[in-house]
């Protein structure tokens, strides 16, 4: 089964930070994949902009190397060369005047203009100001900004105010690649497109929900950034918060950007403050041939967490009494992202104690192997009485849709195409970002005020022992972290 490709209108896309890691690994290979799929119009232009002095030929060669290294797109002979003809480059001083007129000369009239800020947040304001002052952007232009969207509530408000000086909220696309994953969008389809689930999607039938984002890698070359951020700012405040909102939100009146984001905002505002005994922070220790977190960040006294687990409660009619357990960390057993909706036991078992305890669990896998499974209790085949087992109804996309990789586009591909379409459904709104920080800040301030020290944990495991106790105290267990 091959996904239906709907071409977008012609566009000019400028990538600030066009020689950076994100552009080389994700943005440029993703655009080439969309080009091969026939979604990018032949006349579209992709313009890299960065400080480096580089010829167009040198930049195109860099793009070619990036696609060959990070792209996995089968393509016809000549497609890559044809794509590269649409790629241009200009050296631009983001905080000065050099290069802007040359960049403007590449842009066409009566064509969608999009500007991707693949740079640090400190440059957002300077670039936004010059796009307006130099006449590169108009009322129909769009800007894409990468996280982090601030470091706390005050900085997020300042960043939003800076962007708002030059662009309307309808022109600002705050990108979170988790929302571009096929499974995340399928979560909405499963909930709101099937009568089977939505009537059960509440505290009457759901015992609890677990959201896990686990990584096997450490902080790597991001040590200096990460030690000022930590798992709470880097993952919980944005990625996990977005997943929580999509799981918990009320059905929007229609599948419309503001209608969806209004419901997500209501979830964030309904979150209770988190009590200290409902949180666990961890920091990976050395293990095997691998050095520990403090060595990686070159700070032997670091109190920054590389792991967070917490119990979260939502004070509204739908979820009162149903806990949400969030967990994320580095150097864990496997790389996986999963949402598990654990339904309550049947009110009465007719099969007796020997049948054991069985529960329906809807597991939504974001990575690896995007898909969903629903654990259903059935009779174990064979003679010998009524023995019950749980078996999964598997909805793995690779199996259901066939081996054609085009069926599941990369998250960045989908989101960039949504920018060109002008569809903000999968992008965060300014008030949503600020509400998330307003909930997160008191948690971080509490850690600092108490002088909390993260619990050390062995790499390659499930995290600190205290995180297991977080659920054990409630008579529950974390789902196993496995690939």
UniProtKB/TrEMBL annotation:
Q: What is its EC number?
A: 1.1.1.49
Q: Name one GO cellular component term.
A: cytosol
Q: What is the name listed in the Swiss-Prot or TrEMBL entry for this protein?
A: Glucose-6-phosphate 1-dehydrogenase
List the catalytic activities from the record.
D-glucose 6-phosphate + NADP(+) = 6-phospho-D-glucono-1,5-lactone + NADPH + H(+)
Instruction: Summarize where NADP(+) binds, as residue positions.
Output: 17-24, 51, 147
**Underlying gene:** zwf
Gene3D superfamilies for the chain: Dihydrodipicolinate Reductase, domain 2, NAD(P)-binding Rossmann-like Domain
UniProt-listed Pfam families? G6PD_C, G6PD_N
Q: What lineage does UniProt assign to this protein's organism?
A: Bacteria, Pseudomonadati, Pseudomonadota, Alphaproteobacteria, Rhodobacterales
The residues that the entry says bind substrate are: 177, 181, 215, 234, 330
Write down the superkingdom of origin.
Bacteria
Its job:
Catalyzes the oxidation of glucose 6-phosphate to 6-phosphogluconolactone.
